[in-house]
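agent> Task received from the user: take the single chain below, predict its 3D structure, and emit structure tokens. No templates, no multimer pairing.
agent> Plan: (1) validate residues, (2) run structure prediction, (3) serialize to tokens, (4) report one or two observations.
agent> Step 1 OK, no nonstandard residues flagged.
tool_call: predict_structure(input=
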Amino acid sequence: MLGRIYAIFAARNREFMRDRGTLSWNIVLPVALMFGLSFVFSGEGRDQYTVGVLQETETLDTSAHPFLETRFIEFVVLTDEDKAFEKVERHQLDLLVSFGEEGGRYWINPDSPKGYFAERILKQADTEAGGLIEQAEITGDAIRYVDWVLPGILGMNMMFSCLFGVGYVVVRYRKNGFLKRLRATPLRPIEFIAAQIGSRMTLIMAISIFVYTGTHLILDTRMEGSYLTLLVIAAVGAVSLISMGLVVAARVTSEELAGGLLNMINWPMMLLSGVWFSLEGAGPLAQSAAKIFPLTHILDAARAVMLDGATFVDVMPSLLTLAGMSAVFLFLGARFFRWHPE
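)
tool_result: status=success, residues=342
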């Protein structure tokens, strides 16, 4: 019995070692992620809080208040008061402060857990400065974190379902010979791809609508815009993500390699597209890099509709970007698609 177990064990190890693509990605993926994340979030340490400083000039004067010298807080200078208040409401800033000759004021979203701790740090530092700062109110209803994070959770679920549900499945079809048999039929690659998009679209839209409806009714989440506009954003975004998955699956023959490639796309997209937290305090390079991912445009458009009441015209730039990405991905997927392993 042990001999038979060892024979299968050794055979599987040799199969894995001979698959150079899979072996390479199992080594390259974690290294690439570590170097990529260390580059994006570079510095002496990841800042724990993001605080906006409202002032007329764009240069931060740390001598204005001891609080501005606090470590592990990213201070973002803002000159537009309305935009600054909006960022606090939408959990893009944990706290907003303004310092003057007679002390200062600060604004906070009462539903922000990180804002609560940032406020305590501010008050402690203000005690050393004489305790002159006062709290000011932000007019309007504060946006709860659950309202802000719901589009991120729905988008993340859509991302995993679209990429793995198409990319990984198509690779399995190719590996077990199903695609080779389809090649004997009049079916063309673009027709097969269109069918895959239609199938996955039906499933992911049904699941997303069900999850959104349930959470919206139970948690009474915020919805300021049109449900139809939100549905269009979800549909166009799903097509873009599915098309991206098809590019990965166009020529790959190993399920392990496909999993590595898909994770190489998923994790940076999930971290940089604003699923769980805002990139307001990240560097300009990280914010620019986030724009290359479809999920970033999906979440930006969805949050604009749900939180700000944006119209179809307002989110049109995001929809056009997603449509352009879909066209490119579909072209590449159909161009490089192959029915069977070489």
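agent> Step 4: summary for the user.
The chain has two domains: 49-135, 145-336.
agent> Done.
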